[in-house]
Amino acid sequence: MQRRFVYGILGLLFCCLGASAQGEAIDDVMQHVPMATTLVLRASGVKSQSDTWAEFLASTGASYLLATGVTYSLKHSVREWRPDDSDQRSFPSGHATYAFAGATALRHEYGHLSPWISIGGYGLATLVAADRVRRHRHYTHDVCAGAAIGWLSTELTYYIKKKYIKSDRVDVAFTGQLLSLSLRW
Question: Which residues pair with 181 in a beta bridge?
């Protein structure tokens, strides 16, 4: 189990290094590392708070979907210019949204194992947000709003899961071409 975990983390690091070597911004990859870490830990057999894969995928997937919907609705309605004047999609930061949504999911699923897991997730999310400001892609209020949206979206989905959805009422099916999620009330 530990060997698979180490190989998974090494794979994530090589993926990040490969992206930066090809000239892509490292934060384009790093924004997804906290959420990818939850998936790697789960796939490695590390016990998460969610009882089943279906419950796990429903929680993490719903948090990303909600965060995406809120963020891109605001981006297209607020239309704030970026600091580098490249476009009018500065507010809120999508990178910060995804990084903090992933860090919050990581805390919910694996924070019980060690406080360092949460510290690492939120630390990486903070670095991604700060890098967006450093690169003049966002203003500080853009990344703060993105972080809040990511955190709140994930907190809301986990609250709804805990309050209203029982793990025996969630089903996930993958046919090779189609991923299906069903919730029974």
Answer: 172
